[in-house]
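Hello forum,

I keep getting stuck at the same step: I have a sequence, I want structure tokens, and every attempt I make locally crashes halfway through. Rather than fight my setup again tonight, could one of you with a working pipeline run this one for me? It's a single chain of 400 residues.
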Amino acid sequence: MLEYEKGGELKTKSIDLLELSPSTDVNTLVEEIQKAEPLITVSRAQQVRLLVQRLQEKLRQHCDHSFYLFKVLRAHILPLTNVALNKAGSCFITGSYDRTCKVWDTASGEELHTLEGHRNVVYAIAFNNPYGDKIATGSFDKTCKLWSAESGKCYHTFRGHTAEIVCLSFNPQSTVVATGSMDTTAKLWDIQNGEEVVTLTGHLAEIISLSFDTSGDRIITGSFDHTVVVWDASTGRKVHTLIGHCAEISSALFNWDCSLILTGSMDKTCMLWDATSGKCVATLTGHDDEILDSCFDYTGKLIATASADGTARVYDATTRKCITKLEGHEGEISKISFNPQGNRLLTGSSDKTARIWDVQTGQCLQVLEGHTDEIFSCAFNYNGNIVITGSKDNSCRIWR
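Reply #2:
Ran it on my machine without issues. Output:
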């Protein structure tokens, strides 16, 4: 990101380094950036060179990291529903059927806060990353609450949905939180004043996933009505309806540069859509059962899919070809995610294990064992050197 002043106003500009790899020639890259970007003068070139080298070091980190069990947290008196980390990975949250959300310190495994006030299951939880100073909780009591991550104080209770809230997300600017509900609508709420900004209506069945693009201008909702809708986040206007799946949607998200939308479905396929035109550009096939989760890597070059058939697959987002198949789990895989470096995948399964995989070869590098019931949630921290797993055995495990 470049910060500069123009007419007394502070402005920002971003340089896309999605192609950067540990082997990139830094001097050549900086010369190319200088040619394309007049803001980077000769006197600034060395500073840019150092920043790029630091990014390269980050990409090289934790390549062969082996995880060990650091702590078991028997957090809640009833099963967990979800686990989420802040961007730094310094703390994480757990939602539960016991109507609370708990905030944990990752380094020590200590409980920092219990967020109490919901009158039913706390199902959807999120930090306002990258800031991480606020937490949103969505509940079966039809409300969403906004909390201070530091103090555990409740800022607002958002009321208006007429059925359970099952998904939520902050916009990247952290000015709005979006909630998706079994009442077939999604709502956007103003974080400052606690007011409803807009209601997104048009789906014919429950909304079970939603996500913003990286600019925060658009939001997508995935529904049991087999469709995904792209909305203008400021006006609530429908931009596109993505029609093509023939069963419920399980996930829907943008890639990093917002050019593509990936949708996963119970119809055993994932579809790739052009985000500008709303047209389907590819259908990713190969699984023998429902797709339960799907994701892009951080640069948007790779796609990973997890299925009830017990396997996961990695596809190239450009060629749409399957690169590798991850085989080894003995039950359905409900969760999949890339590490930030993009060379490892993490999967969580009903076979009570989580696994770490090599993205290119599909080899299983490690099995994280010890849970006594299915794992429904797992995540890397931003550095890729900590893993959190949440299980139906009412416990959460920190692996480092």
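The first strand starts at residue 2 and ends at 6. If your local run keeps crashing, start a new thread with the error log.
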